[in-house]
Amino acid sequence: MSWNTDDEMEKALRASLRRKAAPPDFAAKVLAKARQPESISGAKKSWLRPPFTLALAAALMAVAIIPAVVLDYQHREEAKGLKAKRDLLTALAITRDQLRHARDEVRRNTRNIQ
Amino acid sequence: MKTILITGLLFSIGPVLLAQDFDFHTLDKLAAVAKSSTNVTLNGDMLKLAAGFLGSDNDKDAASLKSLVANLKGVYVRSFEFDKPGQYAESDVAALRAYLKQPKWTAIVEVKEDKEWTQVFVLPTANNTKLGGLAVVSTEPTSLTVVYIDGSIAPADLEKLSGNLGIPEIKGLDGKSGNQKGDNKADKKNGK
């Protein structure tokens, strides 16, 4: 923009400095604009909000703990199974010895009778 | 003086009756006064678990043992060794003897000699090809052993069972009744 005279420049200045009423939706537009940047950063950082961080922490803990729990369970089951096996062999050994003893007694007494 | 009674036959015909609970509770109190005791209670689930581990240490005859155990519902053993005679009373086993006198049980061996008394009972089934159970009661002045095997046992398995069948010898067992050192409470009592 150029002015030929000082008067023209003065007039332009006055016109530009004249008080003007704001458009009716100005406040709403400003508020909308003000909210916009915050909502964008919120979306970007939503995973850092407490419910998500807690869930993430819980998931990480579960990933760390579950294998240990499974291993512990397997060890317990193995120990239980080995004890059951030992008990079974003990029981069968006692049964075998009792049956042998009974058989030997019968044989011995049968021989004595004959 | 010897009194010998050998009764019964393995294949006698008997009614089809399912094995009922064999009450060991009257015996469990003896562990408190016994020098050593063995207490084995393996129900169906525990037997399956134990069978799953047979062969894990290259057990001899694991396959035969597994087939023997496969049809069992329970294995129960109570064995006590005492320091001196008189630490248990005949009345302690009277209930068990009475239980085994029921018609469904058949005594196949009964040896009574001096103060030693050994009884072997079987539970016949209708088809006579298999037994429904086996019970042994053996008493001596300083020992008492009761064995109850609940479930289907082939007579051939009994023969196998009295052989070796890959069952390891247990230290302290001398082939006579009730002389085994316990591996459960006995170990605790002996401070092992």
Give a description of the structure:
The complex is a heterodimer of chains A (114) and B (192). Chain A is mostly helical. Helix content of chain A is 83%, strand content 0%. Chain A has helices at residues 6-17, 26-44, 50-113. Chain A starts with 5 loop residues before the first helix and ends with a helix. In chain B, a hairpin with a 2-residue loop joins strand 6 and strand 7 (143-153). Chain B has helices spanning 25-28, 44-53, 62-70, 90-100, 155-161, 185-189; strands spanning 2-5, 36-43, 72-81, 106-113, 116-124, 131-140, 143-153. A seven-stranded antiparallel β-sheet of chain B has the order 1-4-5-6-7-3-2, with helices on both faces. Chain B starts with a strand and ends with a helix. Chain B is an alpha+beta fold and 192 residues long. At the A-B interface, helix 3 of A face strand 2, helix 2, strand 3, strand 4 and strand 6 of B.
Task: Write a concise keyword list for the protein shown above.
heterodimer, A: 114 residues, mainly alpha, 3 helices, rod-shaped, B: 192 residues, alpha+beta, seven-stranded antiparallel beta sheet, 6 helices, 7 strands
What string, H for helix and E for strand, traces the elements of chain A in order? HHH
Assembly type of the shown chains? heterodimer
Count of DSSP strands of chain A: 0
The coarse silhouette of chain A is rod-shaped
| Largest interface: chains, residues each | A-B, 30 and 50 residues
Radius of gyration of chain B: 17 Å
Order of helices and strands of chain B: EHEHHEHEEEEHH
Strand portion of chain A: under 5%
How is the largest sheet of chain B built, in terms of strand order? Answer: 1-4-5-6-7-3-2
The helix content of chain A, as a percent range, equals over 70%
Q: DSSP helix count of chain A?
A: 3
Q: Could you say which structural class the secondary elements and strand pairing of chain B correspond to?
A: alpha+beta
**In this structure, how is the largest beta sheet of chain B organized?**
7 strands, antiparallel
Structural class of chain A: mainly alpha
